[in-house]
Design brief:
The protein has two helices and no strands. With 75 residues, the chain is an all-alpha fold. The protein has a single domain, classed as Up-down Bundle (Methane Monooxygenase Hydroxylase, Chain G, domain 1), CATH 1.20.58. The two termini are 13 Å apart.
Length: 75
């Protein structure tokens, strides 16, 4: 991929990361206010899914950053 594409992908994934973190924080703040077990479990399930997505997003970010480094170092 040309370098510009890599920087575009990097920015895109940084944006995904920011949005996922915001969604996680939102669910965590809601979690403490739930009165039923069912509602708590639903939010915990959503949190687990979001945390999985965040982990994959960060893995992709690390991969993109390595690719950019390789390109900048002329490999």
């Amino acid at each position: 991929a040309p370098e510009a594409d890599l920087y575009h992908k990097l920015a895109e994934h940084q944006d995904y990361e920011r949005r996922l973190i915001a969604m996680i924080q939102d669910r965590e703040s809601l979690l403490g206010r739930q009165t039923t077990l069912a509602a708590q479990q639903k939010l915990q399930h959503e949190l687990a899914a979001l945390e999985g997505r965040l982990m994959r997003c960060r893995q992709a970010l690390a991969r993109i950053e390595r690719n950019i480094e390789r390109k900048e170092n002329g490999f």
